Amino acid sequence: MDIAFPRIEPSVAEDSFRHGSGRSLPVARIELGGVPRGAAIVLCDAGALERDAAGFMNGLAEHGYESVAVDLSPTGGDPTGTTDRDLVSDVAVLVGRLGERGWSPAQVGLVGYGFGGRTALLATAEFALGAAVSIAPSGVADAWSDALPPLIQVARHVRTPWLGLFGQQDPGAPADVLARLGSYLGGSPAHTEVVTYPGVARDFYRDARETLAHVASFDAWQRTIEWLDRRVVPRPTPLAAEWQRRVASAARA
Amino acid sequence: MSEYIEVDQEIPRFRVNRKVMTDPAVFAVERERIFDHSWLYIGHETELAKPNDYVTRTVAGRPLILARDAKGKVRVWVNSCPHRGAMLCREPKGNARFMTCFYHGWSFNNSGEVVSIPDDAGYGAGFERPGLAAPAKVGSYRGFVFVSFDPDIVDLPTYLAGAKEYLDLVSDQSEVGMRVLPGTHEYSVKANWKLLTENSYDGYHLVSTHQRYLEMITAAHGKADISFASNSIAVNLGGGHAVMAGTPASGAALGRPLSEEAKHEKAEHFERLRQTHGDAWVDRMGGTRNLVIFPNLVVIDLVMGVLIRRIEPVTPDYMEVSAWQLVPPEEGEELHRQRLDNFLTFWGPGGLASPDDVEALETCQRSYAAQRELPWSDISRGMHTPHKGMNGEYQMRTWWRRWHELVAGEALPEEPQAPLPDFFAGQRQRPASATAEAK
Ligand code: FES
Ligand SMILES: [Fe+2]
Fold first, then answer.
1. Domain membership flag for residue A2
2. Could you tell me if the CB of B85 is within 6 A of ligand 1?
3. CB count in 10 Å sphere of residue B221
4. CATH 3.40.50.150 corresponds to the domain B163-438
5. What family does the database annotate (chain B) (predicted)?
6. Contact at CB, A231 and B96, closer than 8 angstroms
């Protein structure tokens, strides 16, 4: 990026997912002043909240999205086993948190990486959000745990437009399984797309010097932002809201 | 009589002056009197499968966006930012609920409203925020979407006149609705656009121009039976629209021979259609039809494949052509495979037929440089008889009469047409449910 934006340090606080899985988890937040374009939920890969959240959230903020980020993956000492239903209700809790800041579901984008990418796809079957992107979702062909079966078995048609980004050399997402998943999701009422990056493994979204890896990470981020910009309903500025009121009352008169 | 077309009813003779193929002034008049006042095809509803799908098209020179909005309604917008003009969508197709202009970042939804303007405080509270512009009219018939830039034009069904029946014959070939396959054939021809409208229902050129294709047919079938041409017809459908149509003999003659499996499937499919639509209608379906809807939409149904072709005039001696394939989606794999093969081998830009047409038209255009020495093209074939067959040129004269009426403001004398043979008058049986309701 040529323009250096000031880096925002997300605030991190424990939040209770009482209406979801019942866990208490650290949630990172970036709230923006002025009129942000939209809001985003970032679901980090298992164990990667500290490593990844600030970078992704700053990237989103550059495009006008304030965000919350969380790692919903089951922790080591989780004896009962978090289920898919738990995960989806945890996402509902986050949608609710953004709702408290005035964001309607259509104004929210959902971006998930790895384990979070898997959760993002499951959540799109439940919620009509603005847009969703799963980057290198894990657990596509293989079960994560007994309680978390492979995506190819549990994915359902989506209600939120969904973009799936994959590394061709990701052993967890073989081409034939991806082709099946893509064509099944193509029957959804909402638009879906699957993109596979050649010559890269599942961490393709992290920038690297090697050409294919650099290209894949650049393209993946560009696509993610464009996917959101084309679908997440923007929040009107006060002047835009005033104009909408004027148009509506003129239409009524 | 104008300087453009000369009709002699005695000889009889119908001639078109080659100036109309080369003169920029004629081209400008066509833009204004034809293209600004007709219904023009833009695309098929099935190209927009999901909410927020869009395609971009150039229609009569205007860049347009054909979209299905977030609520599922088909909309058409001018593909230009109301701010200072940059093109909003620069891709041939995609899916987007919001389109953001890359110049200054204004953003619009696919219902045409401006949803955000960066740093909008720079405009003050009284600013009238402009939405997207649209053509005056948008209409759809059996999934074929048309636009018109004339707010006072007659409604689309009235405009289509007798062409509706032939769109029905094509559209009724699927029990779930005919669908356009993804992908567009796009090619250009260095020739006047009217030459391709003429060519699209010219039965006379089949044997001479398409030797290459017929040789393939002969090799594949053991013979090329083109005797079907003798009981085919050309019909004036009103409004400048015309069709050349054949009997089932024509439908069986073209395309590679079907495999046993495909033959069987096709027979079963037609049998089911008979239950719904009745024999008279389905018998007609089994024949070919080359339809030109004035001014620039071509629908060619050779039974082995159905083509939608749109001709976009660019300059007097250059046109761009887009073509799509319309298919019954319920078709099985084998029949579908053979349909795709037929489509490519006949109409493909690298196929065994279309390139020969393009070559013919481009040589016509080059030779019009000698129009002072040779000013007239002859379109009289079949004028001496009321029995209009596909090897005549009545279908083209029908088109030219409408052209002349609009461009020169003068109606040319009509010519008598014999009543339609019974076969071509067969109508669709009313569906059982409709009959039940009527009782
Ligand atoms: S021209 Fe589109 S925003 Fe300026
Ligand atoms: Fe031809």
1. no
2. yes
3. 15
4. no
5. Belongs to the bacterial ring-hydroxylating dioxygenase alpha subunit family.
6. yes
Report if pTM > 0.90. yes
Cα nearest neighbour of A130 on chain B: B97
- State the best of B71, B88, B93, B98 to mutate against chain A, taking most chain A CBs within 10 Å: B98
Q: For the domain that residue A152 is a member of, what is the CATH number? A: 3.40.50.1820
Residue A103 to residues A56, A116, A174, B175, B227, Cα–Cα distance (Å): 20, 21, 37, 44, 70
Domain ranges of chain B: 40-140, 163-438
pLDDT digits over A50-103, tens only?
Answer: 999 999 999 999 999 999 999 999 876 565 678 999 999 999 999 999 999 999
Q: Please determine whether the domains at B40-140 and B163-438 fall in the same fold group of CATH.
A: no
From the list B225, B184, B187, the residue with the least C-alpha distance to B353 is B187
Closest C-alpha to B322, from B22, B31, B74, B58 = B58
Q: Residue A209: left if φ>0, alpha if ψ -120 to 50, beta else—which one?
A: alpha
Cα–Cα dist B156/B154, whole Å: 6
Report the residue count for chain B.
Answer: 439
* Residue (of B299, B393, B379) closest to B4 by Cα position: B379
Report the complex ipTM: 0.91
